[in-house]
Structure formats: C-alpha cells, structure tokens
TrEMBL record:
GO terms for molecular function: hydrolase activity. Gene3D superfamilies: Cytosolic phospholipase A2 catalytic domain. Keywords: Hydrolase, Lipid degradation, Lipid metabolism. Residues 7-222 form the PNPLA domain. The lineage of its organism: Bacteria, Pseudomonadati, Bdellovibrionota, Bdellovibrionia, Bdellovibrionales. This is PNPLA domain-containing protein. It comes from Bdellovibrio bacteriovorus.
Length: 378
C-alpha cells in the first residue's frame, strides 16, 4: 500500500503560476510512467491556497484539475486581481497620504491596503466549487484541504482544515488548526499580502497572508498524517541577480530594496527553512535504529522539493512595463525597478508572464522525473 501524500504549495503572488507548471509535469510523469498517484492532503498558503483549493475541487480528476488551473493562470489579468483604474488607485493613494500627514491631528490611520482586491474575490468565487470539495472528501478522493492564514487579533498562524472528522487537530501556541468549511473568505484571507491587499474578515476575526509568521509551512500536512511530501517553492535556490547587484552596491538601500528584503523574509524564506529542517530531521531519524522510531515518535519522511531554475524576479523586471501605470508610478517612488524586482514579481498578474512561469515549472518538474517516479512509487 502506497504512503499517503501531502502537497505543500507556498505563497508568492503571481509566482503561484510556477506551481501549476510543476503540477502539469507531475501529471504527465504519472501518466507516461504508469505510476498512479493522488494527493491525500492539500495545503496552500497565499497564492498556493488558490491552487490547492482549485485542485481540491477536482481531486477526482487530477489531469482536468491541472488543465483548469493552467487556464485560470494563462487568462489572468491585473483587472481580475485588483482594481487598476486610476480613479480607485488615486483615491487610495491620496487617502494614505492624507492620513499619514495629518493622522496625528485627526486620530485617523492609513487605509487598510494600497489596493482594492474586490476583483480577486470575484475571481476566486467564480472558479471554486465548494460543494465538489465536500463531495471529493466524502467519496475518498481527498482526505483534507488545509488553508493557512495569519490571525491579526491573536497574532497566530491559523490553518483552516476541511476533511474527515477523525483527522487530528493541533494547538501549539502561535500555530493552530481550526475546523472549517473552506470558502472564498478563507482563500482570500490567506492571499491578502500585507499592506498591498486588505485584511479579510472570517467570522468575527481579521486575517491576512498565510505566509506571515508561518515558520513551518510543511507542518499542516505532516500533522494531518502525510507520509511523503511534494513541496513546490517559488524562488530560485542560490544567489539571484537581485542579490548579486545588492552585494555590489555600496550605497544605502532604497526603500524598494528594503521592502524586497522584508517581503522575501515574510513570503519565501519559510518553506526553504522548513525543507532544511526536514532534511536534518531525516538525517537524525535515519541514524536511529528503525525499531526505535515508534518509541521516540520520530520517523524519516520522504519528500521532494522543487523550486525555480531561473530568477523569477529578474524575469519580472523585463516585463515591468506591463504593470498598470499607477502601480509603476508608486514603485518608482520607492526605488529602481531592479530594486523592486521581487515586489514586481508578486504583482505581475499578467498572462504572458504567468504562461512563462508555467512553462518553466513544467520543464523543472520534468527534469526531476526520476525523483518524482521514486516518490510516487513509495
């Protein structure tokens, strides 16, 4: 009997398109190799929450699920994610400037976010079939869907779990699970990039991007019972062009470069650190006699981590001219386009850019064919 598999999809805004390319390769490898598979546990954060939820809607037919996701990302436009008209963006900008300059006198605070994401709410709602998620769980095509967000009131990472009643729950202080019927608000909350996208109210609490304070993004599927993991990151390993330029620059960093660094720490670092933690735990577990694993509640965990082979930030800079004019204006006020490369890549919800990311993810996935077959066969 094959081990139960968990899929972990990290955040990164428009970079989420890369994950779809990898999943496309996974489906093809499975089909051509004759090695069957399924994802028992789906876990998503931020853009990964959108992808994981869409997969859960079609868990009974993975090939269709991937095709559906590819269509969603290759047809994406800025207008489908946030309001891009000059009137809306100017109103938000002036509100921020006004509140920041005279807020101390009036007692007001800046707006909730720099962008209006009501279009994203409509996009998510129109592309999800929550009744099918329930049916897929009931019919055994899927054991659980887990969506993670940050609770701004409790300052805790909350993972909303929809799955079989017997699944375990956890409460580890700043990291807890909560039973839920996943809906648009949960996905939108997990995707609410701090400052850029507004917090989202779920029941009586406000939530934001699940990457915030999520130091162990692989943990939800592990807690739920996954015995092997496929983890898809959205950042190239090793030094990027942005980091090499910053290293050579002896001038004080621009605001854009500071924001880039903060956003990387919030959005992208955790999954890589969690993979390193998994590797070290596996090394430790493998050094212990197998008959002792049960006694110490430790076992090696099979996993495969796939991340981009190219610098997505550098790719984004080359297409920065496609950003809405007001967004370009705001970014240029923070520094050069190269200094804002990572931030641009989060916001570049543009069809040709996302199509390129899908193709890169597809090639990266196929390049790991042998490892994928090994993982799927276990």
């Amino acid at each position: 009997m094959s081990k139960e598999m968990g899929l972990v999809l990290s955040g990164g805004g428009a970079r989420g398109a890369y994950q779809v390319g990898v999943l496309k390769a996974v489906q093809e490898v499975s089909e051509t190799s004759g090695v069957p598979f399924r994802f028992d546990y789906l876990s998503g954060v931020s853009a990964g929450a959108i992808n994981a939820s869409s997969l859960a809607c079609h868990a009974e037919n993975f090939k269709f699920a991937v095709t559906n996701l590819s269509r969603l990302w290759t047809e994406i436009t800025f207008e489908k994610v946030f309001s891009t008209n000059s009137l809306t963006m100017s109103r938000i900008g002036w509100q921020w400037l006004s509140d920041l300059s005279i807020g101390g006198l009036t007692g007001t605070t800046p707006g909730k976010a720099l962008m209006d994401t009501s279009p994203l709410r409509e996009l998510i709602h129109g592309n999800m079939d929550y009744e099918k998620v329930r049916m897929n769980i009931e019919q055994g095509h899927l054991k659980a869907l887990a969506i993670t967000a940050i609770d701004y009131v409790k300052s805790a990472t909350t993972t909303f779990v929809q799955g079989h009643p017997e699944l375990p729950e956890w409460d580890k202080g700043r990291k807890r699970s909560e039973r839920a019927q996943i809906g648009t608000e949960h996905i939108l909350a997990s995707s609410a990039i701090p400052l850029l996208f507004p917090p989202v109210k779920v029941d009586d609490r406000f939530f934001g991007d699940g990457a915030v304070r999520n130091h162990a993004p692989c943990s939800p599927v592990i807690y739920l019972g996954a015995q092997k993991l496929l983890v898809i990151g959205v950042r190239m390993q090793g030094a990027t062009a942005y980091e090499e330029r910053a290293h050579k620059n002896i001038l004080a960093p621009s605001v854009a470069r500071v924001v880039n660094t903060i956003m990387n720490g919030v959005m992208l670092d955790a999954v890589e650190q969690d993979i390193d933690r998994l590797r070290r735990l596996n090394d430790y577990a493998n050094a212990i006699p197998a008959d002792q694993h049960q006694r110490i509640a430790l076992r090696p965990l099979d996993y495969l981590f796939i991340s981009p082979s190219v610098d997505i930030g550098e790719m984004a800079v080359q297409k920065a001219h496609k950003l809405p004019r007001m967004v370009r204006f705001l970014l240029k006020g923070l520094g050069s386009m190269h200094d804002a490369s990572e931030l641009i890549s989060y916001l570049l919800f543009e069809s040709s850019f996302c199509a390129d990311l899908i193709e890169i993810g597809y090639k990266d996935g196929l390049s790991r064919k042998d490892e994928l077959i090994t993982l799927l066969s276990k």
